[in-house]
Amino acid sequence: MDRKDIWIDFGFSGLTKWFGSPWVDEHTPLEIVALAADWGEGAYAPTLLEDAVTLLESPLPTREIDILWCAAVGVRFVPEERWMDGRDWLRQIVDVCEERIRRDEPRPDALAPVTPCDPDLGDLKDAVLAEVRAIAPELEHTTADHPYYGVPEVVPALERVVTEVDPDLGFRLFLRVLKAYLVYISESQHLRYRDLGERFGYNESVVDDGTLQLMPRAD
Known about the structure:
The structure is a single chain. By secondary structure, this protein is mainly α. 59% of the residues lie in helices and 2% in strands. Strands 1-2 form a two-stranded parallel ribbon. Helix 2 runs parallel beside helix 5 and helix 4 crosses helix 9 (167-180).
């Protein structure tokens, strides 16, 4: 399936949005993963599997994986109260996705790769990193000092995903944090985010899902 056909945020970043749903308390965490993996008759599972494996095998410390998860979902980061280690969580996500994909075998496109439209990942990495850094002071303040959902060191964790793991996943997690914390962006930032989404091959609804907060301001 072409990623433009997935009209909701997908992969690991998209999963965090599922955990922000009002009905989240009606299901166990693994039940929510299974629901996400089953979306679109299993179309979501390969992207979630790809992101989970990428993070699991990445050089990121587990603490930074936990920070990214909490910030993207919009929940307070309290290490001693975490219900699961971040890498153990990723392994369970992988297990759920692999089981869902096996249900579709031998469907030819079950494990078809989903790749960005723009092959110049170096250029994309620089572009995403520039956007993260352009709003870094405001983003760090909003996430670290939030009275209810405080998460420290979010910007450094996002920068490491972009530079050391995958700029595609880093951009989607960046967008998800902006949306989770209702961080205002300018019209010019919004246009640049849409352009990056096009280059990564997203459906336009992945960037513009109605939850980005636009406020005209001087750049």
